[in-house]
Amino acid sequence: MQQRIFKSLCLSACASLLMCASLSAEAARTLKVTLQVNTKHPVGANIVYFKNQVEKASNGEIKLQLYDSAQLYKGSEVPQAVSSGAIDMGLVLIDEYAGTLPATGLFSVAFLFPSYEVLGKAAALDSPVRKEIDELIRSTGTRVLWWQDYGPVQLLSKGKPVVIPEDMKGKKVRVLGKPSGDFINAVGGIPVKIGGSEQFIAYQRGTVDVGMTGTTAIQSRKLFEVMDSVTITNHAQTEFLVVINDKLWNSLSEQEKGWISTAAKSAEETLRAATKDENLESEKFIAEKTKMKVIHLTPDQVKAWQAAAAPAVETYIQTAGDVGKRLVDEIKKLY
Known about the structure:
The protein is of the alpha/beta class. The chain has one domain: 3-Layer(aba) Sandwich (D-Maltodextrin-Binding Protein, domain 2), CATH 3.40.190. It is built from 11 helices and 10 strands. The chain has helices at 2-27, 42-57, 78-84, 116-122, 128-138, 178-186, 199-205, 215-220, 246-251, 254-289, 299-333; strands at residues 29-34, 62-67, 89-93, 142-157, 172-175, 190-193, 210-214, 229-232, 237-245, 293-296. The strands form 2 sheets. Strands 1, 2, 3, 4, 7, 8, 9 and 10 form an 8-stranded mixed β-sheet that branches. β1, α2 (42-57) and β2 form a beta-alpha-beta unit. α2 (42-57) packs antiparallel against α10 (254-289).
């Protein structure tokens, strides 16, 4: 009799454990994330950091499945993929929203940011600039979780180095979106939009004459193998966003939102603190370990570029309307 009772209790306990495990499995949530870079790339590694933080904080109740190197979507396809719910989350260059929301192209307006410090203030969590841009993007059905500072943008060339604005006349130039395209139009070049993952082949094949990208990308994407000089113009700032489908976000519990928000804030602070040093390290690597020539502009040359790029700032304001003017004015308050 006692044996039957003991056996019954054991079976009951096992059933309870199985039920708990089943409920736990059902409660676990897997979020799929698309990114167009590999997980060793600075912004890709930052998403891996976020993944680890979320899974640790939630004790595995939320898991992230990463699809890197544009396995699922190119960067230009991410806004639509996330807003439609085709994928839960995605990494996207902020410029990808500029076609439909011109004001979001602010950080690519050439020579608008005079220093890295001004950028940091404009992109800070409590910045009115940042808050307004985040709300604009939320109108598309995608919510910004965090910003990824990827550092300043430079110009690459093959053959003749780019030193003065006149060197751009008639040249086909890779651009990231409309604001950088307006800059190239202003200096007499021909803008050609090319995704980040497509740069190497585009430069190798001569699809464009002049490249445009972040300093660390030259190293990570080995662009020094297909272009032979880089001009440190620091003319714009590269900001990536990690976005989540807004309906999905609203379906999360407050606890889940808390886990994700805390990890996102930590990921942003970690990357922004390291970006400046990483960019300087990449510049040193390029100068010392590759055949690529690194060109630094004189103060007078920078002024010449600023004057040549001025029409692009006006174009941004005209295109973005009152919102654009308000954002530019906010930036200038930070000078």
